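FAQ: What does a ligand-bound record look like?

Like this one, built around zinc ion:
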Amino acid sequence: MKTSVIGFPRIGRDRELKFASEKFFRGEIPETELQEVAREIRELDWETQKHAGIDLISSNDFSFYDNVLDTAFLFNIVPQRYKDLGLSLLQTYFAAARGYQGEKGNVKALAMKKWFNTNYHYIVPEFEDDTKIELIGSKPLSEFLEAAELEVQTKVQLVGPFTFLKLTRFVGSKKAEDVADALTAEYGKLFAKLSGAGAAWVQVDEPYLVRDLDTEDLALLKKIYGQLLGNKNGLKVLLQTYFGDVRDAYEEVVALDFDAIGLDFVEGRKTLSLVKEKGFPKDKILVAGLVNGKNIWKNDYSKTKAVLSEISAIVTDPEKLYIGTSCSLLHVPYTLDNETKLPEEYKKHFAFAEEKLIELNELSNLTDEVLASNQVLFEKRVDSVDEKVRARVAAIKDSDYTRLPVFEEREVIQKEALGLPLFPTTTIGSFPQTADVRKNRSDFRKGVISKEEYVKFNQKKIEECIRLQEELGLDVLVHGEFERNDMVEYFGEHLSGYVFTEKAWVLSYGTRCVKPPIVWGDVSRKEPITVEWSKYAKSLTDKPVKGMLTGPVTILNWSFPREDISIKESVQQIALAIRDEVLDLEANDINIIQIDEAALREKLPLRKSDWYSEYLDFAIPAFRLVHSGVKAETQIHTHMCYSEFTDIIPVIDSMDADVITFEASRSDLLILDALKENHFKTEVGPGVYDIHSPRVPSVEELVGQLTKIREKTEDRKLWVNPDCGLKTRGVEETVQSLKNLVEAAKTIRLER
Ligand code: GLN
Ligand code: ZN
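The answer part, i.e. the structure of the complex:
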């Protein structure tokens, strides 16, 4: 059986591209040097795949920032404001990706959005009415030729025209349908050039096909590919889908003149049944995505073998069945070779990108021996089962998911107990993480300073932070989160059941990588995590201090999850661990506790019909389980980074928190209309200024913002706060912004 890899990580085994790009941004190296680093990364990536015996290897999966942005530049879909800067091509590209501020002008970056259900972000192309679609770039061609010169025959990966149009923002009066013909024609020219250069295969990525599609979408799809495949210029075209099944478009897709179709058998729950029920055309190749491109566990060969044998009952010609990755390997780290500290006992269960190549190879020609040695890995893993945790999860009762008394009663009791003014002011938790704060943590980690020194320093910081908030006149204080590197990793480190890597970086956006911790086994709390810090802060002031935790759904969503138990079970285990922390905080007189769920919205399934059964039906109860044990007087807050929950407002309300703070300063406050329409009961703190920018909002501006908010929200339910944590901000701008925020709250109190 032949093998295919959709795409390979591109940041470099040791994040070479990140470091070179950042040097280039700072003007420390010339473009030629950056290009050389990029070329070396591509070469190594191709050699690695060739060496592993992969048959279909991609070129053009490389990018300096993002492949969707590359596609926009390839076809001249570049807003005029970036061209007007008069920069070099690469500099113009980076200006669109990151914004530009300098002698040639001042422009903001294009918007960035999450790439489907991953933590990777793409740049949203903008189409202006006078944009003239034209094949002006040559990246796919030059990368194909570069590989060919190294004697690697590649398939050329392209973002498909359908997905590209669906993701593009049309800022004028034109719509996707109006420009589809023109774009398709330019893709056709590109096909001709690639074919002329000797390419045999192109891979068009169409992940948008796994979403809910309506008849107009299907018509657009058929129109585009009807034309494009009408003249393939001798190329073979692989339609590649991923991140789910293509249930709405299956019939259309198999009827089009593709030479091969790549389907996701890992995340696509219905893929196998679609193939079995609807059949698969005899003349086409099926590339079965069976090696998970998103998670880091070894493939279970016996399960994969079983699926392959079911597929071969339909695709009977062995020449026509390939095995591939479920999505690009961009979403997993490079290689286990980089992990020198992780014991073999653990490591042998993982497969990062390079190890997944070996898996593809082994699966393509599976012997009984290889199968047998693989199966040993799926017997009980060391340290993965904790009977106490299992028993606790099994003992959860329905009533544990409900906090009593009900919100309306609690609201009265809390107003009485807390005695806060109208429009209470607060922050989201973190205060500026200055260099000394980071150094204190890293010195402690490296053993340069003792635990006592580490704690003392943080206590000093907490004291400064409390004094500052008192001086500013904030109503609900925080300790500042100086002990945390990251809101998930910090909790992971204090939970048993987690393992950590050294260099398992995964691209998040541009040059930014994250290193998700791995849920290895049953999770429980080793010891109180935040209690000492919160207690210390509380001892310094008479004002209420808000305890600060990360919620179970966010903790799991930003980790590599287990595959041997369900996501629901993992979330329940984490919820019980965080519940213990909530109850300990309460027992230590912390009577306001915030449980952040920054990533709750993020993993909402791509199809609406899956929202509840596949996710919300366990995610929301998990959150409720965390806080249902507290007294009526204890006020539970939650925080979400985006206000993109207009479509699930009743669900957010049913988390049954007492207060929710969220980002609203960048959006146009539409969310507030929706909250009103839905009779949202939870008190709200719509962020009044954007903490992602160093700009200090004036008192007038904040009063203006609050006035608009008040038109749509009841005064007695309104909180005043920034839109997210302040950790990335400088001290000066933070102090000034918060001063103005408190002043603005006072102003509107007087208006009453
Ligand atoms: N409490 C966290 C902080 O203030 C929340 C961060 C987030 O929402 N991303 O940093
Ligand atoms: Zn946030």
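Follow-up question: can I read anything off the structure? Yes, for example: Residues 428, 598, 639, 641, 724-725 surround zinc ion (ligand 2) (CB under 6 Å).
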